[in-house]
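Consortium newsletter contribution from the modelling node. Members have asked for a concrete example of what our holo predictions look like. Here is one, prepared for the adenosine monophosphate complex that several groups have been discussing at recent meetings.
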Amino acid sequence: MDCIKLPDQLRAQCRVWAKEGRTIALVPTMGYLHDGHMSLLDHARLRADKLVVSVFINPTQFGPNEDLDRYPRDLDHDLAIAREHGVDVVFAPDPAAMYRPDHSTWVEVPEMGKRLCGASRPIHFRGVCTVVLKLMHLVRPDVAVFGEKDWQQLAILRRMARDLDLDVELVGRPIFREADGLAMSSRNVYLTPEERAKAPAIHGGLLEVRRELAAGTRDTAELGRIFAEHLAGKLPAARVDYASFVHPESLEPVANITAPTLLAVAVFVGKVRLIDNILLEV
Ligand code: AMP
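And here is the predicted structure:
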């Protein structure tokens, strides 16, 4: 396994593979790899001859008051995990290698990028789209694998790929959870032990909504109240950033559930903002 730091070197390696007729899978990450990332690597490993994982804490997707500086990192640990999971190349560039000081070009899916997480993170998805498109151009993957934990991200990237005619298959993989239901996230390490113990209430609230829907409640305002009440009971320190019922592809709001609908939530537990979601089917 190689660890490549320079974009040109990554492109050269991927060109060699393409000339040899090999297919390539790409898994973009910000590192500090956990079991959720590993589930993506294992799937991607089966989907192509060569597997590239990027480990890059992309500065352009963080707002000025966000956690860019304290985002957890441990490249040696990530390299060991990548090696165990059959990765061929880890691409771990420095920010300066990805963005020149006068970088000026952005890729944006404005409407979808304003919803949900975009309301409190206005530049986030512009940064995500831009860096993912850059990675796609360097690697030219046949398949790129993403987690459904970041459902909005995947929906936006699918729209970008469709609109810009990208020749790549985007694959979404299910949310990987801790045994108690908390969605795995690199940010879970920020939680205090007490917050960590109660954080599974977020997933519990999503399941409660699914039960209520099965019992006949279709009105999303009512279902939203049920989520909020569940959380207030089990995790009083939580503050709901949003709990929104949306169309799974367009992310447009849904008032009454008559077709598959995504309930996407972002919750502050203390200072830590956690996201989760559930696909609701009638
Ligand atoms: P990140 O390193 O947080 O940017 O995540 C990199 C990729 O891993 C994204 O496609 C995420 O959606 C995915 N991912 C993160 N956490 C999970 C999880 N718990 N289950 C499945 N995929 C995940």
